[in-house]
Design brief:
Order of helices and strands: EHHHEEHEE
CATH class: Alpha Beta
CATH architecture: 2-Layer Sandwich
Radius of gyration: 17 Å
Number of strands: 5
Low-confidence stretches: none
Shape: elongated
Pfam families: MoaC
CATH superfamily: Molybdopterin cofactor biosynthesis C (MoaC) domain
Subunit structure: Homohexamer; trimer of dimers.
Helix content: 25-40%
GO molecular function: cyclic pyranopterin monophosphate synthase activity
Strand order of the largest sheet: 2-3-1-4-5
Structural class: alpha+beta
Number of domains: 1
Pathway: Cofactor biosynthesis; molybdopterin biosynthesis
Largest sheet: 5 strands, antiparallel
Family: Belongs to the MoaC family.
Oligomer: single chain
Length: about 160
């Protein structure tokens, strides 16, 4: 059975020592979904929102969040990211914005937390900018979609989170 990595032998929380790990290319992809009312989706799609370009602001927020992940998540290593991409797919059938955040680096530890943080903060930014017209929006399906590199190699989610 796999062990939790942030606990020492006595069960105390600690930052994992990655000093002996090899530097490898690592990448992680996380996704999230923001569901909203049809009227809200229409405003967002048409760029008619009073606060401006919602998706551009959400993209910048997601990128900034990935860069600050170690300040937000206890015991998370501060990383020098090579790249952070936050992309959006407007799903008119579902009245939803599908968010994909991709982070990469050459380093000793993975970037899963950075990708998850980018996707979640982008989703929260969409919520914040649209809540005046739709407080009932729901953020769903936040999860790791894919991880590449490092000791454990390549992993891909078979299906969406429950």
């Amino acid at each position: 059975m796999a062990e939790l990595t942030h606990l020492d032998a006595s069960g105390t929380a600690r930052m994992v020592d990655v000093g002996d790990k090899a530097i490898t290319q690592r990448e992680a992809v996380a996704t999230a979904l923001v569901c909203m009312q049809p009227e809200t989706f229409s405003l967002l799609r048409q760029g008619g929102h009073a606060k401006g370009d919602v998706l551009t602001v959400a993209r910048i927020a997601g990128i900034q969040a990935a860069k600050k992940c170690a300040d937000l998540i206890p015991l998370c290593h501060p990383l020098m990211l090579n790249s952070v991409d936050v992309d959006f797919l407007l799903d008119a059938e579902a009245n939803a914005v599908r968010i994909t955040a991709r982070c990469s680096l050459s380093g000793k530890t993975g970037v899963e937390m950075e990708a998850l943080t980018a996707a979640s903060v982008a989703a929260l930014t969409i919520y914040d900018m649209c809540k005046a017209v739709d407080r009932g929006m729901v953020i769903r399906e936040l999860g790791l979609a894919e991880k590449l590199g490092g000791k454990s190699g390549h992993w891909r989610r078979e299906q969406g989170p429950d």
